[in-house]
Amino acid sequence: MTTATFITPQSLVAFPFASTLVAGIWTASHSLLHKLGDSPWTGLTIAMLVGSIVYGLSVSDRRVKLSAREKLVGLGIAIVNCFYLYMAALAIKTGG
Predict the structure, then answer these.
(1) Three-class SS of residue 8?
(2) What is the pLDDT along the chain (96 residues), one digit of tens a residue?
């Protein structure tokens, strides 16, 4: 069975590109939005947007056949992944 990458448990540790993308957008937003761009909420919002796009692309892939239950479980995993993206981006952005 083919499955979507972003909504598997393995994806919790497998997306350095996405976290770097979130950190980069967050840093760029700081230069454009100043104080708003520096807010942790901005970083979380960016992570949620990136995660939502990846989740949407994953579940809409015609090669992937998911039941409603699998999509719901995948959504839960995707939400965890979004927070993981935020935490990774925060570490990249702060150098920690």
Answers:
(1) coil
(2) 455 655 566 555 567 788 888 999 998 888 888 777 778 999 999 999 999 988 888 888 788 788 889 889 989 989 998 999 999 999 988 886
Q: What is the value of pTM for the model shown?
A: 0.78
At residue 89's C-alpha, the angle toward residues 32 and 16, to 5°, is 125
Q: Tell me the CA distances in angstroms from 35 to 1, 39, 45, one per residue in order.
A: 46, 7, 15
Q: How many Cβ atoms are within 10 Å of 86's Cβ, its own excluded? A: 23
Extract the tokens encoding 8.
């598997």
CB 9 within 8 A of CB 77: yes
Domain edges within the chain: 13-94
User: In this structure, are residues 26 and 93 in contact, taking their beta carbons and an 8 Å threshold?
Assistant: yes
**Identity of residue 2:** T
